[in-house]
Amino acid sequence: MSFYTDQQTLDDLQIFGKPGGESIFSLFNRTRTAGGAAVLEVFFRYPLSDASAINRRAALIQWFGSAGVRFPFRGELFDVIEPYLQNTDERTQLAREERSFDRKLRRLIAPDGAYVAVTTGVTAVIELLQTVNEFLKTLDKGTDHPYAEQMRNLADLLADPELSQMLKVKRTRRPGYAILATYDRMIRWRHRDKLRRLLGMIYEVDVYIAVASVAAERGFVFPVAIGKDSGMVKWEGVYHPAVKNAVGNSLCMGQESNILFLTGANMAGKSTLMKTLAIALFLGHMGFPVSAKSLEFPVRDGIYTTINLSDNLDQGVSHFYAEVCRVREMAQALAQGRQLFIVFDELFRGTNVKDAYDATIAVTEALAGRTNCLFIVSTHIMEAGEVLRERCRTIRFRYLPTLMQGDRPVYPYLLEEGISDDRHGMVIIRNEGILDILNNGRHQKKAK
């Protein structure tokens, strides 16, 4: 089964971010090749939904990190090889013999582009195959490590009688024309598919090494995935990977605690915490290291968030109606029986307090009955929490506190049990001098 998510969620969590901006993808993208970056993007766009596959990928990345493997290929090779393999125009195939004196003379005076592209492509492939062969010799020859099967596949590919000929070519001397022509036919017309598979495997190695280096540098840990119907999600010391000096929090959620009802004042850190939990679980489903002390989770079918939902004035859609439509989308996904992780940040903030109160209670109570799914609901309507506490046994109530130092609020960003009664909006307004500015402006206007 596929792992489900959508563009709203990718945007909320800044998985890809805006072009040139910071994102979770850019945090991990230390690949050395364009092909590696493309594979990394595929991993991000299609997280895994099978515990065995998740744990295998995590083990692979961890093995590359612990083995201290370095990427041995020159990046420029791939810029040459990719267009060379894509060129299947038979007119560019090198003739078996360079018989035309005029053609030889022209190439001595000014070599044509097609001839140069083919000959440089052949020599680049030769270097690539030889580097793969040398790379395999540096790796653990055991049969029980996570990369053993891929190593066998690489070795089998190099063992092809025709491709293995290129392992013996001396790099210090360019092969003659006849040999280049022979190898060109082998590469582009007989073994192109094999070489494309080889490139794909190299690009994956590029990703594994890049991600392992990020994990080592930042102290990230590798997740453990378990079966869908067993255990709980356990975040321990989880923090936002892109927030400087982020504070870690710990939390457990499962069938008997399937809703986290989160309260707290503005700026207390609710949105950041929700993003943190969702990002860790998203990366966990990729088998990628996460910013936490540990993460164990039963596999979900997908993740959906509603954090930075916008209206659509062009279509006449208000913020409240956009919220209603989003909740309907989630309800439809739940009706299909998917086991999901869903985040709602400040349900129904786009309507009046009475409707928001009633709707928050009604929707959250309905979600509580979906014990095979996990939900986080944040709100400023603390009174709704008191009602839900009486009605729903699977809801856990946590809040992010605000401490006052004199007339200044301080935010520790650490979860506490219960429902917040912090109301410091007016304190912040006064501290910012807004009322003084408005009142002084009014007095000055009257004086004139």
Keywords:
six-stranded mixed beta sheet; MutS, DNA mismatch repair protein, Chain A, domain 3; 50% helix; four-stranded mixed beta sheet; 2 domains; Rossmann fold; 448 residues; 17 helices; single chain; alpha/beta
Word description of this protein:
This protein is α/β, with parallel strands linked by helices and 448 residues long. The chain has 2 domains: 31-218, MutS, DNA mismatch repair protein, Chain A, domain 3, CATH 1.10.1420; 224-442, Rossmann fold, CATH 3.40.50.300. Helix content is 50%, strand content 12%. It has helices spanning 7-12, 24-28, 34-45, 51-66, 75-86, 101-109, 113-138, 148-158, 161-165, 177-190, 192-218, 270-286, 319-335, 353-368, 382-391, 425-431, 434-447; strands at residues 224-226, 233-238, 249-253, 259-264, 294-298, 302-306, 340-345, 374-378, 395-400, 403-405, 408-410, 416-417. Helix 14 links the parallel strand 7 and strand 8. Helix 3 (34-45) crosses helix 11 (192-218) and helix 7 packs across helix 10 (177-190). The longest helix is centred in the middle third of the chain and has 27 residues, at 192-218.
Overall geometry: elongated
Strand content: 5-15%
Number of domains: 2
In CATH, the homologous superfamily of the largest domain goes by the name: P-loop containing nucleotide triphosphate hydrolases
CATH class of the largest domain: Alpha Beta
Q: Tell me about the largest β-sheet.
A: 6 strands, mixed
Structural class: alpha/beta
Please state how the strands of the largest beta sheet are arranged side by side.
6-7-8-4-9-12
Radius of gyration over all CA atoms, rounded:
29 Å
Number of contiguous helices: 17
| CATH architectural label of the largest domain | 3-Layer(aba) Sandwich
> Which whole number gives the mean pLDDT?
89
How far apart the termini lie comes to 72 Å
Unreliably modeled segments: 105-110
Along the chain, the helix and strand elements come as: HHHHHHHHHHHEEEEHEEHEHEHEEEEHH
Count all strands and give the number. 12
Give the CATH topology of the largest domain: Rossmann fold
Q: Give the helix proportion (percent range).
A: 40-55%
